[in-house]
Structure formats: C-alpha cells, structure tokens
Amino acid sequence: MELAQARMPQASPRSGGRVLADALVAQGISHVFAVPGESFLDVLDGLYEVRDKLELVTCRFEAGAVNAAEALGKLTGRPAAAMVTRGPGACHGAIGVHVAMQDSTPLLLFVGQIPFEETDRESFQEIDYRRMFGPVAKWVTQIDDARRIPEIVAHAVDVATSGRPGPVVIALSEEMQKVSVQVPDLGPIDVSRPYPDPAAITRMQALLAEARRPLAILGGSCWTEEGRSAIRGFLVAHDLPVTVGFRRQHLYDGTADNFAGDLGVGCDPALVAKAREADLILAFGSRLGEAVTQGYTLFDMAGATPIVQVHPDPQEIGRVFRTRLGIVADLNVFAHAVADLKPAATPWSGWTRSLRALRQKTSAAAEYEGPLNLSKILHELQELLAAQAVLTTDAGNFATWPTRFMNFSDGQRYIGPTNGAMGYGVPAAVGAKIAFPEKMVVCFVGDGGFLMTGQELATAFQYGVAPNVLLFNNSMYGTIRMYQERTFPGRISGTALTNPDFAKYMEAFGGHGEVVARSEEFAPAFRRAVASGKPALIELRMNPEQITSRATITQLRASAKA
Predict the structure, then answer these.
(1) For the segment 306-340, what is each residue's pLDDT rounded down to a tens digit?
(2) 139 plus 243 within the same structural domain
(3) Would you give the end-to-end CA distance of the chain in angstroms?
(4) Cα 156 from chain centroid?
(5) Which of 156, 216, 394, 510 could form a disulfide with 168 if both were Cys (CB 3.0 to 4.6 A apart)?
(6) Which of 309, 338, 361 is the last residue of a domain?
C-alpha cells in the first residue's frame, strides 16, 4: 500500500479552474478560442497561469470562436478547444459543433454551467446540455467533481480523435471550478490504430483486377501529411482517376495527372455522368454522403456498382450504399498498408485520361458577360498563392467558383464546412492565421456570410495576424436565389441584400481594403493586400446576373418555364 502510494504522481492542491487549464496543457491542446463568461471565471484564471504554454484567443462571437477551433482541428488532426458561457453562449456556439460533427473534425467545447444547487429550476440561462448537444456531438458530459477533471478531459480527447473524429461537449459546473483538489495530471496515451485486414486488401486487389472503369473518392478527416503521400503513391502507381468529396480538396494534389475533380455541390455535370459509368468505386475515407452522391442518386443502393469503402468507423460502412467490400481501418494506416502495392496491369489508363481531360476542360477559363471575369482572376490567384497557403471558404454559391477554376497543389490546404454552414470562412481564416502566422491565409466568403461573422477580423487585429479576405459581392443570398429562380422564376422573395462599403468596413478596423470591379484590377490589388502586412479585404463586385459559374438568372428562368 505504501509502495503504491509512493509511485503515484504527486500534485499540489489546485482549484478546479487551474486543474482544467493544466489538463488541457497535459493533453497537448495549443489553443483555446473563447468568448468569456461569468460561468467560467475560475477557468479563465487558470488559463492565465498557463499562458506561456497555451494561447487563449478572445473572440467576438461564440459561433466565431467554435468555428475557429474547428478549423484548427481540420488543419492539424488534433482538437483545439473552445469555451463559451452558459445558455445563449452555448446556443450561439452550437453551429460550430454541428460543423465538427458533419465534417468529422475533432473538437472540444467547454460550456459554463449554472450553480449545481439550482438545477432543474429553469435558473438564469439554464440548459440541459446533454439533451441539447446529444444529437450533434460524439459525447456530452458534465464535470461536477473537480477530482475527475483530468480523467474526463483525457477521455474527451480520446473520444474526439478516435474512430470517426468529432466534437465533445463538456459542461463545467460553477462550484466545481472553485474547489481545491489534489489530483495528478494525465497525459495522452499511445493507442495503435485499426489496421486493415490483409485478406481484405487481397480482395480489393482482386476487384481492381476485374475493373475497367474504376473511380477513387477521397474523403474523411485527420489525414496526415505522410498518409496523404502514401495514398497518393498507391493511386498514382495504379493510374486511378481520383476525385475528392465535397470541400475535401486538401486531400489530393489538384495538379496531378490523375486528378478528376470534386464530387459535391456545384461539381461538373460531365464528371457526375462519368461516375455513373464507373464499374468500381474506391471510397477511401468518404461516408458517401448526400453531397458526394448527388442526393444519394449517384450509385445503386443495393450495390449494382461494386463499392470498396474504407472507414475507421464500422457504422459508416454500407450505411446507405451496400458495399461489396468494407474495410475498417485508420485512414493513414490503410494508406501505408497499400502504398507499395503494384498493379498487374492498368487497363483503365484511357478511362483515367478521359476523366482528367474533363477536369482540364471544366477548369479552363471561360467567357462571361461583364467587366469582372471570376474564372480569369481565380486563375491569376492560383499563380499568386504561396506554395503552403491555407485557404478557407464560407458556404454559398460563390464557393463553387474557386473549386471549379482553381487546382490546389499538394502543399496547399483548402478547408470549408461540408455541412454548408454560413459564417465559417472568416473565423476559420483568423484561427488558421493565429495558429500558423508564417503561412499565407486566404478566405473566400460571400456578402451574406461575411456579415454573419466578419467581425472576427477584430480578433485578427487583436492578435497581430493578417489574413486576406476575398469577398464575393452579388448583393443577394445567391444559393437561395438560385433555387428560387428554378422553382418560382421571377418571384424574388427574401433573397435581396443591401450591403455596406466592405472596403471601408475593413479600413475602419485599420486594415487594407480595396474594391475590384474589373478583371485587370485583381492581381495588382491582391499583391498590394499581401504587401500591406495588414488584415486585408478585397471586395469582388460580381455580375449578379451570373448566378453560378454555369448559368445566368435568365437561363434559370427560361429552363423553369420550359
């Protein structure tokens, strides 16, 4: 008994708030994005004590804070933490939890809680967080005993990063933060990742040998640099045509000879038609969700087209489309397991070249009416980007322009909300620039989404970082207007917007703002923005008639009336 006690790590008495701060440090959490609240004052004080080990980033809106943390999780594969206050703070931050859940991103959200003795009285700002967040989080819990803080935080990180990654929500009772306890910190553990069954890999090779029109779809999250390199080695060696899921462009080099484009919202209709002709689908990490499968119509659910689906969560395999072969494995482990496999033959090389030709055709600059041609300026932007640039996108019709006309290279990272949440782009860019100040960070955002969370640029100024924002302005909620014109042509209801002078808005913060209305103005403006060394915004004055990169409002109305 005495020997066992002697071996236990010794710890000095600490408040619950300090124990929580130390627990985050022990788990390797580098950033906490927060909007402060009185419900976690003791935690804020604990974070003050570890400020040399963990950066507390004060944000302007809870949705911005959680989205910034989610973006960091996307970029690193490790969870960042967000902290919000009880009630309204939790409700505002919930959108970021939904993003993390549908995007399979590791995330920790800490929510202040009411005094324990007031539970179930509908106390000021009281919410049952287990019920509120249950459907959109991997795990929801509450810490009422300060002695359990290290245990619960450690388990939360394990849950957030294991299997299919996702968000964990932890409520912090008010009294627990103040109690002094003597408890050791708990560090991360080394857990071996699920390894693919060798027999399953042999079966996959046999299915490939029978194929003539195979198609790979890359998806999922937490791919490492080494994992992406390994899976690329397999795909190149087999000369397989490669697509990426909705807003998963960072998973594969868009300049590679076997890259065929993305399957998602606004993707090339010709690629969708070719995908229907495929005789083998290799879904590596993709859940084959609604966006990727074009509303669950791309494949036969009964499995007429053979599907090999690799995913770390067995519950996702065959969830909608019955697979010919399911492989439960960590995506990076799987990639290394197949990286050195050599094909006996690649009779589909002509098929691969035809899909690549489609990608080159659809991404070529096109002619559009009006003085600002987005296809041409996005081609210019592609040449102006740094080799290791991070690009974030908001949700909206504008977002289909960069994914059509830009090919992101292997070192660049393009991230966005696969759940289609507006208001993501700016906070994600600010969070990325704070975490990686040495990298060029560019945000794509529409006029609608910018005015939801654009105030997070104040956070960029506060922390001395300079993201670059490209604001696509067509004075409307473009996606909804598109659907409106298809269904109720000419009957504009609720989708028109009145906007401020966005360049002056940025200048009011002390940043660099410009308006670009003509194609030839863009490249010089972007160079000036980067050279300014300040947070910068370039407003792109779009032609509102050109509602998508493939259709005008007039064309949509004509089609609807036909």
Answers:
(1) 999 999 999 999 999 999 999 999 999 999 999 99
(2) no
(3) 85
(4) 20
(5) 156
(6) 361
In a domain? residue 191: no
Same domain for 496 and 376, yes or no, is yes
CB 17 within 8 A of CB 143: no
CA distance 333 to 208: 20
3-state class (DSSP) for residue 516: strand
Task: Show Cβ contacts of residue 144 under 8 Å, excluding neighbours closer than 6 positions.
Answer: 116, 173, 176
Contact status, residue 406 vs residue 432, Cβ threshold 8 Å: no
Residues in Cβ contact with 435 at an 8 Å cutoff, skipping those fewer than 6 apart? 30, 31, 72, 75, 76, 80
Residues 351 and 283 in one domain: yes
Specify the pLDDT at position 319. 92
Residues sharing a CB contact under 8 Å with residue 436, sequence separation 6 or more, in sequence order: 75, 390
Rounded to an integer, the average pLDDT of 69-97 is 94
pLDDT higher than 60, residue 8: no
* Backbone torsions φ then ψ of 276, nearest 5 degrees: -70, -20
Helix (H, G, I), strand (E, B) or coil at 486: helix
pLDDT at 518 over 80: yes
Q: Which among 361, 378, 395 is the end of a domain?
A: 361
User: Which two structure tokens, joined as six digits, stand for 498?
Assistant: 């009145």
Is 390:415 a contact under the CB 8 Å cutoff?
Answer: yes
Q: What is the tens place of the pLDDT at every residue in 415-432?
A: 999 887 899 999 999 999
Angle (CA) 65-66-72 rounded to 5° is 95
Contacts of 253 (CB under 8 A, 6+ apart): 232, 259, 408, 409, 410
How many CB atoms are located within 10 Å of the residue 326 CB?
18
Note the pLDDT tens digit of each residue in 31-73: 999 999 988 899 999 999 999 999 999 999 999 999 999 999 9
Count of H-run helices and E-run strands, the chain = 21, 20
Residue at 422 is within a domain: yes
Contact call for residues 240 and 216 (beta carbons, < 8 A): yes
Six-digit token string for 173: 């009772």
Whether 87 and 124 map to the same domain: the answer is: yes
Same domain, 26 and 173: yes
Do 408 and 518 belong to one domain?
yes
The answer for 239, left when phi > 0, alpha when psi is -120 to 50, beta otherwise, is: left
Residue whose C-alpha is closest to residue 75's, from 427, 413, 514: 413
Residue 133 confidence (pLDDT) above 50: yes
- Please give the residue range of the domain that contains residue 211: 198-361
pTM over 0.90: yes
Q: Per the domain annotation, does 350 fall within a domain?
A: yes
Backbone phi, then psi, for 92, in 5-degree steps? -65, -40
